Amino acid sequence: MFDLVDDIMEEHPTHTPATNDGAGLDPEFDELFKELNTELFPGCSLMSSLNFLAKLMHIKVITKWTDGSLDQLLELLRAAFHKGNQIPASHYEAKKKLSKIGLGYEKIHACTNDCALFWKENAKMENCPVCNESRWVDKNTKGKKIAQKVLRYFPITSRLRRMYSSRFTAKDMIWHNTGRSTDGMMRQPVDGKAWQEFDKKYPEFSQEPRNVRLGLAADGFNPFGNMSQTYSTWPVVLTTYNTPPWVCMKESSFMLTLLIPGPKSPGKDIDIFLRPLVDELKMLWDEGVQMRDASTKTIFRMHAALLWTINDYPARSSLSGWSGQGYKACATCNEDTPSCPVKSKIAFVGHRRFLSRKHKWRQDLLFDGKKETRNPPKSLTNAKILEQLDRLPDRVSGKHPDHGGVKRKRDASELNWTKQSIFFELEYWSSLILKHNLDVMHVEKNVAESLLGTLLMNEKSKDTHKARQDLENMGIREELWLTTNKKNKVVQPHAPYSFTADERARFCQFIKGVRLPDGFGSNFKNKVLPNNSNIIRLKSHDYHILMQRMLPIGVRVGLPTNVSTAITDLFTLFQKICARSLDVKDMYKQEKNVVNILCNLEFIYPPAFFDIMVHLVLHLPQEAILGGHVYMRWMYPFERYMKKLKAYVRNKARPEGSIAEGYVADEALTFCSMYLEGIQTKFNHPDRNADANIPKRKLHVFSSQCRPMSKVKINDITEEATNHYIILY
After folding, report:
1. What radius of gyration, in Å, describes the C-alpha atoms of the chain?
2. Segment 197-209, tens digit of pLDDT
3. 20 backbone dihedrals φ, ψ, rounded to 5°
4. Cβ–Cβ contacts within 10 Å for residue 31, how many?
5. Which side of the chain, N or C, has fewer Cβ within a 10 Å radius?
6. What are the DSSP E strand ranges found in 21-171?
7. Residue 544 — φ and ψ, nearest 5°?
8. Whole-angstrom Cα distance, residue 578 to residue 655?
């Protein structure tokens, strides 16, 4: 634990070196150093009070003890050990002692209508400067008043400083500079075009490999187990792309930087709550901060930049300012989004315009009854985007009915812009070529859900009566039009892209019989109804497995060859985009191939099938070229992290406060766990199927985590035998 305290002291570049007895320490380290030198009980020379406390609290986290059970254990230990022991009396006292190791957060009061923060110039105001709403729940309360809404802000400078001051993490902070790919394969965002263009635009920033590149993820979740209660808490999480790919997407590397309170989603007013973070990012870009690098024992000035955001499509609309609804819902296509009105919805069809001018499909009338003469949408430059934003009128923030709460009709010149994002205040933001990532997780889930629903003709099917009427209105595919039988009942002819009753049963039986490796995915046997008529309760990862592993085989059950081939091509596209290593040349091929895939699907499915999520598939290969491989730019790890944050809620009357306190405590324990020895931590725990009796292999290609079930004796091949086999080969 002396190493831990030493690294904490290194967080302050101007700290005074201390002697073994703590002399020369700054006052803030006095209590921590005293705790380190205090025996657990009189005569105990094996473990200090701080060491015991860190290990005990870590066991609590790993084994998920309740607070009450720890209180009882501490009470028992205090009674069993010698008098004068330093065992804390309760879990609350234990957390209070460990808080000296953790990093704190700030509480910033906010207007109940999301109009403004009571911060900086507004810090002493009693009423909102925009809507004049009271800051307090009851302004007439005597004594301490309670704010109507509280934003929790976790400063990132101190957390980045800790990453450089720790001997275990500092060495990984320049991995992006030493681990660049040289064989044309993309394995980390540094290999993407967006990162490389940023380096060319700002060479002074890129010359210092210790400067930090950040990614931001934000989404809302219900902190209560009762989903019938509408409540939305929005955490804003940062990850550091300097570290290796197998590190930066782990929960231990995430930094919770903002906790936006409910009960309602902030929507397009999220910029109000992002103000503290953006101001700190501006400071880190312009001025930087002085830090000590534990790996080189040097002091340097660190700067930081935000590369992009990672969100689902609704949250992307809130952050970017481009609405994801309407005829121009695609932010990439902008005003040239291919769309048309159909029965009670908008269909995003017309992907033939992305084909070459001489392509035969442009003249085919079977798509929508018309020839395609339009050119593909022009690529938007950053200057064009700024020009569009300059046309936006001034907007009053907040949800107050008299100040921005009433919807107004958007002018045609505004396109789908609702605001200018606060991120444009960052000097470099307008020059980024990839600002907001399309979340492949949600795109894949929605596309797979539409495909599976249409195959099985369940409640998620896009093949409805209105979809068939669209075909009749366009004058195409007459064999699929609705007809009337002798009983004057409307009949929907069977379509080639859906299963019959027998084929549906065979398909469900196939899904039920699939056996997946342990921990790979859900048990699909429990997802199929007993009568083999439907598949229910699927999660996002279930759709991921279905789409990339199972449906390419399952669609061969009864679909025509042209339909199954078109669907399989779509699945293959997602497989290549989601690969751990991306071939740049192959991604350029997929960028052209995806147009043919969507046109093939347009030829098969009715226009109602093509919602905005199906259209967004068009831009996924392009974003893979810009940002690199997908698993560092999608929501899977952040969604799992939000489940962890949800578990922190112990007091349902104060969900955000519970999450903030739980996060700070877990952050301190995570930092401690890197220094603990002789105890299982999140950094050294064995894998789920690890077997301690497996003999070690010299070559990693022969490594295995499991013992064979039979009585087979494993023998290592000698060097002479290896050379003999090589000569024979």
Report:
1. 29
2. 999 999 999 999 9
3. -65, -25
4. 13
5. C
6. 106-110, 117-118, 149-153
7. -60, -45
8. 35
